[in-house]
Automatic annotation (TrEMBL):
Residues 153-287 form the TIR domain. The keyword Cytoplasm applies. Adapter protein involved in the Toll-like receptor and IL-1 receptor signaling pathway in the innate immune response. It comes from the Eukaryota. Its main location: cytoplasm. This is Myeloid differentiation primary response protein MyD88.
Length: 290
């Protein structure tokens, strides 16, 4: 039997007990997406979706069948929510059991919304919750003076960077947008309208509005939660497109260890004197590929 007292994420016993009365269908699109970002990538240092599936009681052959899914975490949650017992509270407990406190900390604000939905009429109408949350996710638009009724603006590349590296980003804009390359870059501080959810709009931009992502690697990048999220999100998309989708760029020496998740992708190195003269042309060609 599952003990409700084990789910002590917030330290409020009554609040935690309430989560066990919240059905999984109340877990909205945004939370499911966040869970997939964390759990889909196979990892040797943190428990992924396979460990969660084992805790949920799925058998070996069932777990193997999910490996062919583009979003195994999403499919896992969908199948588990019709099992008994299953609830948001139990999901939180299982995440704690597999030692994924990082996920609990990140999604806790949004989980509260699920608790408030447990008496919502949306829960009694099949498909309504998914439709409502998906629509809300696509409301935000990014463009410079775009017509709200127009199609979302599309970009050649999303630039993943830290504020400390904004000078290099300006040079990138000059070399790739304001030159014969005529590429269209998505630079968060310039192109994203104020008031939108940082995590939600970044995910939509990377997946649906940008053909590729350029990660500006620096020591500041390596300790940035936002850059970590954006990079892992890009890598969690269709595995067959990983090498094409994300391009890491090193523009200055790095003191910290280069991220292991990017070591299989060819680096564009601005610090190499022997290839620096080719750097912008090489990057432009990579971003222009179909």
């Amino acid at each position: 039997d599952v003990g409700e007292e084990d789910c002590s994420r917030s330290g409020n016993a009554k609040e935690d007990v309430d989560y066990f009365s919240v059905p999984m269908v109340a877990l909205n699109f945004h939370v499911r997406r966040r869970l997939a970002l964390y759990l889909n990538p196979r990892s040797v240092v943190a428990t992924d979706w396979t460990g969660l599936a084992e805790e949920m009681g799925f058998e070996y052959l069932e777990i193997r069948s999910y490996e062919s899914q583009e979003n195994p975490t999403g499919k896992l949650l969908q199948d588990w929510e019709v099992k008994k017992p299953s609830s948001v509270g139990l999901l939180l407990q299982l995440l704690k059991r597999i030692q994924r406190e990082d996920i609990l900390e990140d999604v806790s604000p949004d989980i509260g919304n699920a608790r408030q939905l447990r008496h919502s009429p949306l829960l009694s109408a099949p498909g309504m919750l998914t439709t409502a949350t998906t629509t809300a996710f696509h409301v935000g638009r990014t463009s410079r003076g775009a017509d709200p009724g127009a199609m979302p603006e599309l970009f050649d590349a999303f630039i993943c960077y830290c504020q400390a590296d904004i000078g290099f980003v300006h040079e990138m804009i000059s070399q790739l947008e304001q030159s014969s390359s005529h590429l269209k870059l998505c630079v968060f501080d310039r192109d994203v309208l104020p008031g939108t959810c940082v995590w939600t709009i970044a995910g939509e931009l990377i997946e649906k509005r940008c053909r590729r992502m350029v990660a500006v690697i620096s020591d500041d990048y390596l300790v940035s939660d936002e850059c970590d999220f954006q990079t892992k999100f890009a890598l969690s998309l269709c595995p067959g497109a990983r090498d094409k989708r994300l391009i890491p760029v090193k523009y200055k020496p790095i003191k910290k260890e280069f991220p292991s998740i990017l070591r299989h992708i060819t680096l564009c190195d601005y610090t190499n004197p022997s290839t620096k003269s080719w750097f912008w042309n090489r990057l432009s060609r990579a971003l222009s590929l179909p």
